């Protein structure tokens, strides 16, 4: 999802996209991985390969308890949870 740009220190880049991936789910939890991307930069790999976007920050969390119950009711809850955790603003799609 597109987000209001977040400037990273030391001129590392500006994140303008958030991607959230749902991982392993148990009967009372789900693993969530998220990454903030700079879509204007590429990542240089060893051997000269390039990855289309530059990952500026990634992390994971395990959603349990009331948050997991809320996710089971509304799968969009995870997106809202991560957005609030990071304190970023989503740009609505047109």
Task: Describe what you observe in this structure.
- With 94 residues, the protein is an alpha+beta fold.
- 20% of the residues lie in helices and 48% in strands.
- It is built from 2 helices and 6 strands, in the order E-E-E-E-E-E-H-H.
- The strands form 2 sheets. The chain has a 4-stranded antiparallel β-sheet with strand order 1-2-3-6. A two-stranded antiparallel ribbon has the order 4-5.
- The model has no long low-confidence stretch (mean pLDDT 93).
Sheet/helix structural class: alpha+beta
Radius of gyration: 15 Å
Helix content: 10-25%
The best one-word shape is globular
Count structural domains.
Answer: 1
- Estimate the mean pLDDT confidence: 93
What does the oligomeric state look like here? single chain
Number of strands: 6
Total helical elements: 2
Largest sheet: 4 strands, antiparallel
Strand content: over 45%
Write out the strand line-up for the largest beta sheet, numbering strands in chain order.
1-2-3-6
- End-to-end separation in angstroms reads 12 Å
